[in-house]
Amino acid sequence: MTGRRAETMEANRARLLAAARTAFAAHGFAGASMDELTAAAGLTRGALYHGFGDKKGLLAAVVAQVDGEMAARARAASADAGDDWQALLAEAAAYIEMALDPEVRRIVLLDGPAVLGDPSRWPSQNACLAETRATVARLVAAGTMRPVDVEAAARLLSGAALNAALWVAASDAPATALPRALDAFALMADGLRAR
């Protein structure tokens, strides 16, 4: 493949991702028309099929993009934490709070699981799990966290944050559910902290 063709394919991919992200956020996966989406990108359905296989493949790519941004936002929220423990709590809280973001709510937390299945199996979630695992290992080694199985604790903490965000997003009153989810997560996590 020539350099020019690869650049064109990458540009087309980026245009389709941007158009899909806008359409999925505004209309949801089911309500987003492939014809309108490709027209907004200035491309054909053939470009969509070539780049993503189908509409579901396009959603998977958009979810990965948004989920990656969520992870970066959560890490940024924990950057000023005083220590690894506070960073873990701040990152989880930021992730759960993103359930109020309309784009995140619709694309990642509502349509993503409905169309793509269990989020804990998404590659982007596995990357978050790896980071949590590393943090838990440091906390256990430092004696900040009880001597617990690192893998189990990381999976439980990651799963709790994800499920809290899913619950908040699906709630009839997300703004009311959010503080309840944050409080429960903090109490649960505190049970792992060394005394």
Folded structure, characterized:
It is a single chain. The protein has 195 residues and is an all-alpha fold. The chain has nine helices and no strands. It has helices at 3-31, 34-41, 45-52, 55-78, 84-97, 102-116, 123-142, 150-170, 174-190. The longest helix has 29 residues, at 3-31. It starts with a helix and ends in a 5-residue tail after the last helix. The model has no long low-confidence stretch (mean pLDDT 93).
Protein traits:
single chain, 195 residues, mainly alpha, 9 helices, 80% helix
List the helices and strands and how they pair.
Elements: H1 3-31, H2 34-41, H3 45-52, H4 55-78, H5 84-97, H6 102-116, H7 123-142, H8 150-170, H9 174-190
If you compute it from the alpha carbons, what radius of gyration comes out, rounded to the nearest whole angstrom? Answer: 19 Å
Instruction: Give the strand content.
Output: under 5%
Portion in helices: over 70%
Molecular shape: elongated
Broad structural category: mainly alpha
Average of pLDDT: 93
Write down how many β-strands occur, each being a DSSP E stretch of 2 or more residues.
Answer: 0
Q: Which regions are unreliable across 5 or more consecutive residues at pLDDT < 50?
A: none
How many angstroms does the end-to-end distance come to? 60 Å
Element pattern in H and E: HHHHHHHHH
Number of helices: 9
Q: Sketch the major β-sheet.
A: none
Overview in brief:
The chain is mostly helical. The protein contains nine helices and no strands. The protein has helices spanning 3-31, 34-41, 45-52, 55-78, 84-97, 102-116, 123-142, 150-170, 174-190.
